[in-house]
Amino acid sequence: MPMASSDKQTGKNRAFRQSLGHAVDGLKALYRYERNFRKHLVVGSLAVLAGLILQLTVNEWLWLTLAIFLVLIAETLNTIVEAVVDLVVGQTYHDLAKRAKDVAAGGVLLAALFAVIVGCLVMAPALMRWF
Ligand SMILES: Nc1ncnc2c1ncn2[C@@H]1O[C@H](COP(=O)(O)OP(=O)(O)OP(=O)(O)O)[C@@H](O)[C@H]1O
What's the whole-model pTM score? Predict the structure, then answer.
């Protein structure tokens, strides 16, 4: 079993609880080390607050939730790419490292654009109903 010690596991998880614990560790690391992830969380929370105030319909909530989670997931993938690239090349400049990181960042930008579009399309009618 390739396990150095109980807190330095490199082998497979043996129980669902163990898998869940590592997933939660991943989320904690995202929150702790990724400034952009925290920013997206704040913006997403503000969008949820606006949704509560504007009393969105179920359909509108679905779009808003999809947009928020897409951005957070894109940021997660971006963080994975950055970590793996840094692990492989360290501080050495490499064209493929640049491409991988730039493409990952582009994915976050696409998700953020989608969120802006959804935000406008969902909030506009909700604001009309409000006034
Ligand atoms: N090893 C490398 N080789 C070539 N280019 C790199 C390398 N590391 C970083 N870059 C370039 O620098 C940019 C910033 O990389 P960095 O790892 O600092 O991401 P970041 O600024 O932390 O990203 P984020 O804003 O998502 O946190 C990359 O998008 C890439 O263009």
Answer: 0.88
Give ipTM to 2 decimals: 0.92
Instruction: Answer whether residue 6 is part of any domain.
Output: no
Which residues carry a binding-site annotation? 14, 34, 75, 82, 101-102
**Beta-bridge partners for 3:** 9
* Assigned domain for 9 exists: no
2 lies in a domain? no
* Known active-site residue 60: no
Q: Which domain holds residue 79?
A: 16-130
What separation in Å is there between the alpha carbon of 101 and the centre of ligand 1? 6
- Count up the domains in the chain and report the number: 1
Is 36 among the domain residues?
Answer: yes
| Residue in 26, 74, 65, 28 with CA at minimum distance from that of residue 44 | 65
Provide the H-helix boundaries in the chain.
16-33, 35-54, 58-89, 95-130
Strand partners, 9: 3
Q: How far is CA 56 from the centre of its chain?
A: 23
**Quick one: what percent of the chain has pLDDT higher than 70?**
95
Compute the distance from residue 45 Cα to the ligand 1 centre, in Å: 27
